Amino acid sequence: MNRRRLFSKTVAAAALTLLASGTARARGRVSKVVLIGIDGVLYSKIEQANARNLLRLSAEGLLSRSSIAPHTSISGPSWTTVLTGVWDRKHGITGNHFDDRPFAKYPTVFTQLQRARPDLKTHCIATWDMIAVMAGSGDGRADVVVTTAPVPDDPDESRTDAATAAAVVTAITKFAPDFLFTHLDQVDHAGHFGGGARSGKYLDAITRVDELVGRIVAAVAARAAAEPGESWTILVTTDHGHTPKGGHGGQSADETATFVIARGPDFPAGVTTTRFCLADITPTVLALLGAPADPAADGSSMIVRPSAEPIASR
Ligand SMILES: [Zn+2]
């Protein structure tokens, strides 16, 4: 390849990257994305618990509430959808026992980022150990994959989740990864073992997890204040809901209810919609970080373009 051709290819690639990137990157700032996954949490219960950190994130950003039906309302299939952008009918994971084979055909956001932008640093820090199967899969994987060691004497998983959040705060403060995914589990645990979504223990778990979200948001705020050249986006989502008595896996409204929050310079504040869901998260992360969209993805980027149809303000 001669120099001129190399140059024009480079310019074309740079232009494509700019087009694919969010507006923050286009403005010359370095994009960073933190994705907080809270297992089995219903947004209606976040409201009932008055979880102030989560409610503030959605007030400052875009909130989309929708159903994942007919997708399976189980963690394995749903976190796979969050991290690949394709629904269960494509990736084929229907339960919580799986290996890394489906990710050869449908690579995770970590793999796609490593392939498109090997310069990016990506971290995955999770309470549930199966998340590491996803983040550690494929050719090109997360740079850091951590499963929090279960803390002894932790019947409600609150200590283990707190350790996960502490590791996330450390990662943001010390390393400022370009993309970080974290998974917190105690709300789902309360749904199963604390009396279901109607229980006080479920609300208590939301209050505790909200406090951990607050610590992560504070770490991002401190880093962003110290590094004005960086543009930080926080995404929050869940994998499924819970029945009032506890449990999920079916197609009821309580089990399939999910939400996505996107707070950052590329998202309008105080806007609510039903347009976006779990499958849109990986395409959004790719767009924010200037990696090309995956043509196999079922979802699409949530970055709202001026040409997009208006969505309701709340
Ligand atoms: Zn569960």
Biggest sheet record = 8 strands, mixed
Distinct bound molecules: zinc ion
* CATH topology label: Alkaline Phosphatase, subunit A
Category by helix and strand content: alpha/beta
Q: Which strand order do you get reading across the main beta sheet?
A: 4-3-5-1-6-7-2-8
The average pLDDT score comes to: 91
Strand portion: 15-25%
DSSP summary: helix tally = 14
In short:
The protein is α/β, with parallel strands linked by helices and 314 residues long.
Q: What do you see in this structure?
A:
This protein is of the alpha/beta class. The chain has one domain (3-288): Alkaline Phosphatase, subunit A, CATH 3.40.720. Helix content is 43%, strand content 15%. The chain has 14 helices and 8 strands. Strands 4-3-5-1-6-7-2-8 form an 8-stranded mixed β-sheet, with helices on both faces. α9 links the parallel β3 and β4. The longest helix is centred in the C-terminal third of the chain and has 27 residues, at 200-226. The protein is globular, with a radius of gyration of 19 Å. The termini are far apart. Residues 1-21 have low confidence and may be disordered.
What's the SSE blueprint?
Elements: H1 3-20, H2 23-26, E1 30-38, H3 43-48, H4 52-60, E2 62-67, H5 75-84, H6 88-91, H7 102-105, H8 109-116, E3 122-126, H9 130-135, E4 144-147, H10 158-175, E5 179-184, H11 186-193, H12 200-226, E6 230-237, H13 253-256, E7 257-263, E8 271-273, H14 281-288
Parallel strand pairs: 1-5, 1-6, 2-8, 3-4, 3-5
Antiparallel strand pairs: 2-7, 6-7
Helix pairs in contact: 10-12, 11-12
Bound molecules: zinc ion (ZN).
